[in-house]
Design goal:
Blueprint: H1 3-30, H2 35-48, H3 53-81, H4 87-107, H5 113-133, H6 135-140, H7 147-164, H8 169-178, H9 183-208, E1 219-220, E2 223-224, H10 225-246, H11 251-275
Antiparallel strand pairs: 1-2
Helix pairs in contact: 1-2, 1-3, 1-10, 2-3, 2-11, 3-5, 3-9, 3-10, 4-7, 4-9, 5-11, 8-9
Amino acid sequence: MDWGLVASYWPFALAMGITGVLSGVAAGLLGIGGGAVIVPALANSLLLMGYDPAVVQHVAVGTSLAIIIPTGIMSARAHHKRGALDVGVLKLWVPFIVAGTFIGGLLAGWFSGDLLRIVFAVLAFLIAANIIFSFQTKLMGHLKDVAWVHRLSAFVVGYLSSLMGIGGGSLTVPTLLAFGRTMHNAVGTSAAIGVAIAVSGTAGFLISGWGAADLPPGSVGFINLPALALVGILAAIFAPAGAALAHRLDQKTLKYVFAAFLTVVGTNMLWTVLQG
């Protein structure tokens, strides 16, 4: 056994293990798929290991989307058992969110790593502000029963989610709140929508990253398989714990937890750009 190789990779394995636990709890608690935890954690870990900054953010985003598939399934099942999943919204949103996510994944290779980080940070700040001040509800609340508005929202959410590497919950939850859903219903439905986003986005990043240069070892396209296995398994295991916690909190508390979380991860991502 090459102990030097083991010594160089165990910090990465440990970091991904912790990321898996935290992202799983966050997925169940906030309906976000866990990408807001996974993307900065994986990107920073790969940068610290010396991999090419030009592809690190793409790998972090693509791998995050792949990880969200099992996490989202476990989270959605946990919320469904508690009656917090709107099947009507799923049928209306899924085809359009899949289209938006796939297109975003295919076009991701055209964007620089820093541009993806800036997109992530700016959207995180806007979403957090929207949760506190509810300006989306004021703008869109009267359109809650208009089908084409739901479909257009789904497409935009899918496209932006693929560029951020998230399960869409950070965008889907506030949008469903604006359309009159309760916080618990929005979180549960968002978890299920996140699975559709993750499947489509993963396919897009797999194709757009195929044959890319200087990828970290174990990567297929922009999907890193070791990180996928380490984070994905633990995130799927801990997602039901987050869902159980979500149903113990009142809606106002859950909103503030969500907003604070997004502000922290957005600040971290913007700091990474400024430091570079």
